[in-house]
Design goal:
The chain is an alpha/beta fold. It has twelve helices and ten strands.
Length: about 325
């Protein structure tokens, strides 16, 4: 099995900006305990604190300098908060990285506000979730000495993050401090996931022998597949079958056939994994060109997720291939 190597920078190097200075962080949270936790964890990561205050600071008074990493905690998103998030999303578009934690009830509104900055959105996160998000933010800065990642490497890294997240959750449950999660090391190696996300016509892709462009099957067929997949959880631990990318693709394929729009909250539920995990996969699949977001023309506060035409064609080819293989067995 091929291995993927990701050079590891020390914590101080990760938290240093292009000029060698520590990255600055701005924290906006109304819950004092959450605000203190985020502050402690960013300091443990070697970052410099620029501002730490309530969410109201985002829309009170004149605009102020913000850090290279901005964390906002808004479990309830009223009109002023959403307006402030929209402005912040535009402001950090290329100059900073935004991490927003919210609730499942406010997710659709928050997601719609964050359409420019490639923000990380966390849903009802634990402390470990925030630490993992902070680590992902650090890797986005140019001085981390990470080589340009291929499509396969990005999926590998995403899966590694999920595995580290599970470990961090367990450490949280056992009362292990954040220092253990931010421990230093020299390198890590993980097995490549193969060509799960291979582009059409690329490695691992085969053309249909007939040369005829296939069409998607009846939506009832796909809904039946989804129901059968969910039925497994009645007899086995659902974690055994977690495959969010495929569940997302199946749900959106059925929705495309039915001409139904899918909200990000609905898609998170369909993925079968926690919303924060689902959002990471949705973001990765958007970057991979499999999904795209559609703004609601009637309500700019809402956004929907859909398959790209390329992904729909790939799904059609998959079902055509499965149909041909099944026919050979009968």
């Amino acid at each position: 099995m091929p291995q993927a190597d990701f050079p590891y920078a020390s914590l101080e190097e990760q938290a240093a900006g292009p000029a060698g200075m520590r990255l600055a962080v701005s924290i906006f949270a109304d819950r004092e305990q959450v605000r203190d936790q985020i502050r402690d964890d960013t300091m443990a990561a070697g970052m410099a604190l620029r501002e730490c205050g309530p969410v109201a600071a985002l829309f009170d008074g004149e605009a102020r300098p913000i850090g290279e990493v901005v964390l906002v905690d808004c479990p309830r998103a009223d009109a002023p908060v959403l307006a402030a998030l929209s402005r912040l999303d535009l402001r950090v578009h290329s100059a900073a990285h935004l991490i927003v934690s919210t609730s499942i009830e406010a997710l659709d509104d928050v997601f719609a506000c964050c359409d420019q900055s490639d923000a990380q959105i966390l849903v009802d996160p634990s402390r470990a979730d925030r630490i993992i998000a902070l680590g992902r933010a650090l890797t986005r800065f140019s001085n981390l000495r990470l080589r340009e990642l291929s499509e396969e490497d990005r999926v590998t890294l995403l899966r590694l993050i999920e595995q580290v997240g599970e470990i961090a959750q367990r450490l949280d449950q056992f009362g292990v401090g954040h220092a253990a999660i931010f421990g230093e090391g020299k390198a890590f190696r993980v097995e490549s996931p193969g060509s799960d996300f291979a582009a059409q016509g690329g490695k691992g892709s085969k053309r249909l022998a007939s040369g005829v462009s296939p069409t998607l099957p009846d939506a009832r067929t796909i809904r039946r597949i989804i129901r059968n997949r969910h039925a497994r959880t009645r007899f086995f631990d659902g974690a055994l079958f977690a495959d969010p990318a495929w569940d997302i693709l199946l749900d959106l394929t059925a929705a495309r056939i039915e001409s139904v729009r899918v909200s990000v909250t609905s898609l998170c539920i369909a993925s079968g994994v926690p919303p924060t995990t689902a959002l990471r996969w949705i973001g990765q699949m958007i970057q991979a060109g499999l999904l795209h977001r559609n703004e609601d023309d009637a309500d700019r506060r809402r956004a929907f997720i859909a398959l790209t035409d390329r992904a729909a064609h790939m799904m059609a080819r998959y079902f055509a291939e499965v149909g041909r293989s099944t026919a050979k067995l009968t």
